[in-house]
Amino acid sequence: MTQDTSPERIPVSSAWSKRARIDAQTYDRKYRQSVDDPEAFWNEELDRIDWIKRPTEISDVSWSRDDLHIR
Q1: What's the half-sphere exposure (Cβ side, CA atoms, 13 Å) at 6?
Q2: What's the rounded Cα separation, in Å, for the pair 38 and 45?
Q3: Are residues 34 and 41 in contact, defined by beta-carbon separation less than 8 angstroms?
Q4: Which residues contact 25 (CB under 8 A, 6 or more apart)?
Q5: So where are the chain's domains?
Q6: What is the per-residue pLDDT across 49-71, written as a single tens digit (0 to 9) for each?
Q7: Which end of the chain is less packed: N or C, by CB atoms within 10 Å?
């Protein structure tokens, strides 16, 4: 027997949906992009913010035993 591990989707009322800042299709697209191409996703999100100095590096991650970090 296999257990279903897919997330359950709970229906959203139309009143709530009208107040939402994102629709389901946009959320799904952005989520998929964040998984498939995180550099492009975060670069696009950076464009939504007014920066004094825009970051020049999207991510600085190392899983190396000698230099483990997420910045």
Answers
A1: 3
A2: 10
A3: yes
A4: none
A5: 24-50+58-71
A6: 999 998 888 778 888 899 998 87
A7: N
